[in-house]
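[job 4471] stage=fold_predict status=RUNNING
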Amino acid sequence: MRSSQISRESGNRLNKKDKMLKPLHWSRHDRKWVNLFLFPALFFVLFIQAGPLFYSIYLSFQDWILLSSGSPQGFVGLTNFKNATSDPVFIQSLKFTGFLTITTVPFQLLLGTLLAFLASGQSRFLQMSRALLVLPMVVAPVAIGTLWRLMFNDTAGPINNHFLNFLNLSGPLWLGDPFWAKIAIVIIEIWQWTPFVFIVISSAITMVPQEILQAAQVDGASRLQIFYKIELPLLAPAFLLVIMFRTLESLLTLDSILSLTHGGPGSSTVNMTYAIYNKGLREFDLGAASAQSWMFMLVATVLIFVIFKLTIKSEKKTL
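[job 4471] inference complete, writing structure tokens
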């Protein structure tokens, strides 16, 4: 009698729980109210995004130097785009943007992955190490630029005076030589954004099923075989996510250039983002800056498309 009463009560509780877990069904009247409340927010977001977007398209076909006139001076067709393709500074910015992406992303991926595997334990020391490794990513960009400007100082900087001097090497003119200025920007970007790769890959490593790794060890697989045959394929989506984000962010690099070299010496460290910034906010040539912005967007879109295709292929192989 007692058992039947308990089963009846538990059954009633389950029925109540099932009723509570049933999905909500919105009536047509409720949907109207939901849409009505969402409309102001959606309109505000679309207005903020679409307004400047279409206005920049309009400006890219206009002749407008803000210091000369308070309004566009007329339609010029594709002149702004043609001028960009023949502008030596913009062409140099394309080259340096490619150089920056090719040199920083692979090193960030390699170092971030290595650090993620080295710090994947649960000891207190490794937990403190993981916290310290993230610090470069959370420091203010202005502080990073000031710090590295002092470190790259030719006469009083610790890199030349202490590190290279200890190795009996003569320090270069880091910020005065075009080649070494590029290397300085590359070093800063690798130092600042390797923690991002570390965070993503560390999170992906924790998601790898330990049963698979233990089974491989029982079967006699070496650590290197486990990495290449098991862990690397499972981490492929995380790697591609990192490559996509870091590639796009490397195209948008501005803080380190603005605070360290200002595009110099000459125009050796001018990338596409800095070229657009300089054209629009220093020379106030809004038409040319808008045209260069759309050319930059075209390059970024092509890269996104290629990386997206690689991501799809990788996911199909891992399935």
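[job 4471] summary: The chain has a mean pLDDT of 84.
[job 4471] exit 0
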